[in-house]
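INFO  loader      accepted 1 record
INFO  loader      residues=147
INFO  predictor   begin
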Amino acid sequence: MRATLTALALILATTAAAEDGLISYTTDESFDDVIFGLENAILDEGLVVDHVSHTGDMLERTKGDVGSDVTIFTKADIYSFCSAKLSREVMEANPLNVMFCPYDIFVAVTPDKPGETMIGFRSYPEGEMKTIEALLDRIARSAVGLD
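INFO  predictor   done
INFO  writer      dumping C-alpha cells
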C-alpha cells in the first residue's frame, strides 16, 4: 500500500509538457536527484555521457558581462551523449540526420519555481528520428521515476 501511495504521489508531482519542439517533465525532486537519475538512466541504456554543459553556471557568471542582472536559472545542465547503434540506424536512413547528433537532455530549475525541477529534450521530425525521441523520452522518464 505504501509503495502504491508513493508511486501515486510521484506521478502527481511529475507533469509532462510538449510544446513547440520541446518535450519536458517537471517534478518536485531536487536538481541533484534528477541529475543522479539522469546519469543512471543514460548508463542503464548502455550509453556514455560525452559532455555536460553547465549552462546555468555560464549564464549566471556572464550576465554582468552582457549588461544583464537577470538570473535565468538557479541550476541548469545539459547532458550530451550518443548511441552508435541508433545513430548508425538513423543516419543510414538519412545521412543528414547527423545534424541531430549528439543527443541532449537538459535539467533545469528556475528562480520563479525553486521547488520544481524540469527535465526535457527537443522533439524530432517524423520518420526514423522518432526512434531517438523515444530513447530520450525513456531516459528522461526514468530519471524522474516514471518508467
